[in-house]
Write a structure and sequence with these properties.
Layout: H1 2-9, H2 44-50, E1 54-57, H3 65-75, E2 79-84, H4 87-91, E3 98-100, H5 108-119, E4 123-127, H6 132-144, E5 147-153, E6 161-165, H7 178-183, H8 199-215, H9 231-250, H10 252-259, E7 267-271, H11 278-281, H12 288-302, E8 308-312, H13 324-333, E9 340-343, H14 348-354, E10 357-360, H15 365-371, E11 376-378, H16 395-400, H17 407-421, E12 422-423, H18 432-435, H19 459-476
Parallel strand pairs: 1-2, 1-4, 2-3, 4-5, 7-8, 7-10, 8-9, 10-11
Antiparallel strand pairs: 5-6, 6-12
Helix pairs in contact: 5-6, 8-19, 9-19, 12-13
Amino acid sequence: MRAQERDAKRQPRFANRIARPVEDCAPHALFAPLAPAPGAVLPRSMQALHAHRRVLMLQGPMGPFFGHLARHLRRHGAQVRKVHFNGGDECFFDACPALRFTGRADDWPDWLTQQLHASEATAIVLFGQMRPLHRVACDLAGALGVDVFVFEEGYLRPHYVTLECGGVNARSSLPRDLPTLRAARPPRPPRPQDTRARFARRAWHATVYAVATHLGRGQYPHYRHHRPMGGLEAARWMRGGLRKLLSRVTERRLRARLDNPAMHGRYYLVPVQVHSDSQVLHSRFDSIECFMGVVLHSFAEHAPAGTHLVFKHHPMDLSHRDHTRLLARLAVEHGVEGRVHYLHDGHLPTLLQHARGMVTLNSTTALQALHHRCPVLTLGESFYTVEGLVRRDALHEFWAAPGEVDALLFARYRNLVIHETQLNASFHGSCPALAADAGPDAANDDHLPYAGQRKAWLAPGLAAAALAGCMLTLSLLV
């Protein structure tokens, strides 16, 4: 409680087809003057999306967010169509005309090309750029001169989601050269409104989505989700909820020890990313476990005596992975037992305030670390890998001399990231930035049936979804 109060008091420091070339999405293009959206503070990426009159939306996050987005775009005069890939997509969407893709993966390129030509769409909007069908869509859009706007979890959290033109994370168009960043003078952003995002709501959305996808198999016989779904997956999430509750008790002494002033500056923090994160799967490491092994080996060989290494588990991976035995075995093999610790749960800002430094693959928690003046070394590619902002040199040198954070550079960079890419909204909460606009309703001349409206075939499963969702939500509430 004391740590939370201390963190709360900490103040921040800091003409149907428009003639728009694809080069507008190139790096640094977003620095060009662009009129702000009326009645709302929107990032430049969203303002750029407003410039498109015909938009095709592909798969979004589980939940109603893409429905809110479609209504927002229509109020700003865009003609919007949505593509559904499964029953879960249908269940949460009824905001505009929708199409069903029911073919095989091999049929997708031709089908999408036909729809882009028929609709004269100049922009595609999607969530999850590395999903198999989305990767094909990005390549196809590039060949056809269609802009791709990608949503992702917020680079800065909470109360933000990310929107970029062309790609996110390692594919981000944010500048990475130090002279450009030092010269940037983005305005200081206003404090974001609370999006009231709750993990229990995310669990509910996931449960309903899974049930609806299962019930819609007859309408989408060839759909294959990019992650496991079904009863076994729901059981794993319940296990994760129980594991989270148990760790609150079993790790109480460790958290108190790390919060002790005597440990200030004596440990390094390693945020463990989700095992199936596309940033992990497409990195130079074979797995997140491989990354953890490399870091622990280097720590054992080069870290100063008396320092400790703390691995912090990702809250969204508690249901699928537990690295307790792996880390215990590696610590014994390298002779550093008693100096390597593993947290399933913990207050991240408090950990960062006491940490000597952070080592990460490419987690966005690096930005939180920089905010708390905690030096960062990254072993992978990300949008924030800027020399002078984070370290990218040899890991063995970081243990002895992690350096210091350039507070002024980070403040400018943070303001720039918000100004260009961060939308005040939540995938599983409210969307203040989308609700604050005041544009005329779009005149939509489409006459397609609203495939996104709730279907009768969903009804038998919604009662089951409610029961399963309540059980799952209760197991995850803390």
